[in-house]
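Box 3.1 A note on notation
Throughout this textbook, protein chains are presented in two layers. The first layer is the amino acid sequence; the second is a token string describing backbone geometry. Keep the layers aligned when reading.
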Amino acid sequence: MNIESTIKRGSKTLKENNIKTHHLDAEIILSNIVGLNRELLITSDKIKLSEEVLCKYNKAIKRRIKKEPVAYITQKKEFWSQDFLVNYSTLIPRPETELLIYKIIKYFKNKTINILDIGTGSGCILLSILKELNFSRGIGIDISSNAIQIAIKNSINLNLFNRSKFKIFDIDNYNFGKYDLIISNPPYIPSNNIKNLSKDIINYEPKVALDGGFDGLDLIKKVIYKSNYLLKRNGLLSLEIGHGQYNGVSSILRDNGYREIGKENDYKANVRCIISTKSNFL
């Protein structure tokens, strides 16, 4: 069977099972199995696929039918124009999270800084920033040992192992160093709202990386409080937040003496990132 007919068959099967991105998913899954990027795959129709490849493809399509995210099937996700390894221990990087990076890179352009990434997961935020700030270094912490192993592998794949460290730590117990930048995409979904998320999230992504407590602000508060001790004078605290949390998080920041210097809206005009600083720390 050739590539075009295989993709068409996979796409048809996914469409019949209400997968909205059926054709794209069918292409991405096959390109991952045969080891060709999508652009090259769709121009290589004369290649005949082996039974082994078709068997792997059929198994992957069955996983997608069950709403398993494509990123977990392929074990990778593109973020900041790089492929990051992911698994069930890490959240899948979202395009919205890239918003957290743009202003940071502009602010620290041509500077050498020390970075702490709290709740690093796959390491995608820290490693993407380090790719742009060539002489900077950073530490990523996470409570999941499996996530930390994935982050380390990503640092090796991106040639950033020597400028990054990843450690298993709960933020409550981390009291090391001073940082020019603290970044975090913490769990911020209110506990009662978890059940309303789509099945591909509920059934596959790590709940510990989603559940932000009663009002979704538990971990955000911890990051803000801890930053009082870990952030250098005039350093930046950059947070990703959830829908409708801007006023609440802004209030917490003000109460702790922070001054907002920037924010970014997502593609639906919701504030998703807040960047703040303050001069006087405890």
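The longest strand covers residues 231-240. Residues 64 and 70 are 7 Å apart (CA to CA).
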